[in-house]
Design a protein that fits this description.
single chain; 2 domains; globular
């Protein structure tokens, strides 16, 4: 028993992959707030600038299954190297592009790297830790993402105003290059398991990992209000004329998420899925209500904390559950299926928010989004045995 308690996931390879993941996410989150304004500065119309901004999500939705299949059939190191290199080339292209047309091309290249790295690095990490610690590893991986998502936009928004778009974006290119550099020192390249290797040189393409579909559907629903808030909370606060420091919302979210994941890091591999889901559903309903009624910074802070407990927690739980449900040779595809759910939520969130805002008074913005709660519960109830069984089988494997 004492030995089990001392078991740690933080080997050199795990730490390096997590650092690479931080650089990768930092590079992407750093650029996202700048692309719209930069595209317009290069001569793009508002509509074309919107297409350029959304290109990464569009690429991701279509290429996730291909990335998942490649991840299950080739070395995780090779694919992460290619993904990091594509990200670097794409972001460096942003710096030197003379017009918005080429900016779209480089955004596409960056999107290809983004798809490969998101799917591949999570799968790589699952191969580097004992299977009994996959949930804990995904929690810390998510923490790296959360820190990058909190720091990168704040830095880029302040910096571009001082040194301009092109020079500010150089930092994103350096971060992408650091992904390529960091993974050179990882010893375990996570070669594919024998069953997943191509037969006769041909890769059998599967679109999604079937066992992971319920998880992807639920995370897509959880993601809708998260990404709607990410896109619209500033406008929402302005429309309601709220005297709040709205810029601090996602910083509070990141700090609370950090605390949650540090405190609960050892529980992600032992508590049944249903317990996490109910807690996250309650927290999601709470933060939607708080956003609907908020008038002060205190209510905003409570909403951000509720979002961290709701979306931030279930993100890691769904990510690890998707991999636990899949056969070892399909973990890459399971990861891709999970991220496909994220992509759908990322795309639908701002769209749903825009529809609500255009058809209903602003006070209805968050109450209407409560419709996701019964939908999530219906999906869970229809798949309860399988989802809760993932942790049971996981623990049997530990024994």
């Amino acid at each position: 028993m004492a030995k089990k308690k001392k078991e740690t996931i933080f080997t050199k390879d795990v730490v390096l992959v997590m650092v690479a993941a931080f650089f990768f996410m930092f590079s992407n989150m750093y650029c996202n707030p700048l692309i719209n304004g930069y595209a317009k500065e290069l001569g793009a119309s508002s509509a074309f600038a919107g297409v350029i901004v959304g290109m990464m999500s569009i690429v991701a939705m279509f290429l996730r299954p291909i990335a998942g299949n490649l991840t299950d059939h080739f070395s995780k190191y090779q694919l992460s190297f290619i993904g990091g290199l594509l990200s670097f080339v794409g972001v460096l292209g942003y710096v030197f592009t003379p017009n918005s047309g080429l900016l779209l091309v480089f955004r596409l290249i960056n999107g290809l790297g983004y798809v490969l790295c998101t799917v591949c690095m999570t799968t790589w990490l699952s191969y580097l830790v004992p299977f009994s610690h996959v949930g804990e590893a995904m929690s810390f991986y998510g923490l790296m993402n959360a820190l990058a998502m909190a720091l990168a936009p704040a830095i880029s928004i302040d910096l571009y105003r001082v040194i301009g778009y092109r020079m500010a974006i150089v930092i994103s290119a350096v971060a992408a290059l650091m992904v390529v550099v960091t993974i050179q020192f990882v010893s375990n390249h996570a070669e594919p398991v024998a069953a997943a290797q191509p037969v006769g040189g041909h890769v059998h393409i599967k679109i999604i990992q079937r066992d992971s579909i319920p998880v992807a559907a639920m995370i897509a629903l959880f993601a809708i209000p998260y990404f709607a808030t990410q896109a619209d909370i500033v406008t929402y606060a302005e429309q309601r004329q709220l005297p709040i420091a709205v810029g601090a919302y996602f910083m509070i979210y990141a700090v609370v998420l950090l605390a949650i994941r540090l405190v609960l890091r050892n529980e992600f591999d032992t508590i049944r899925f249903g317990v996490w889901l109910i807690a996250s559903v309650v927290a999601t309903a709470f933060y939607l209500v708080m956003l609907a009624i908020m008038r002060t910074n205190w209510e905003m802070a409570l909403a951000a904390a509720g979002m961290a407990l709701g979306y931030g927690t279930i993100y890691s739980v769904c990510q690890s559950t998707a991999m636990m449900l899949a056969p070892a040779g399909d973990r890459g595809l399971a990861s891709a299926t999970f991220f496909l759910g994220i992509d759908i939520g990322m795309s639908l969130g701002p769209i749903v928010g825009g529809i609500i805002d255009s058809l209903l008074p602003v006070s209805y913005f968050y109450p209407v989004m409560l419709i996701i709660i019964p939908l999530i519960l219906l999906i869970y109830l229809a798949n309860r045995k399988k989802l809760n069984g993932a942790v049971v089988h996981h623990q049997e494997d530990i024994g």
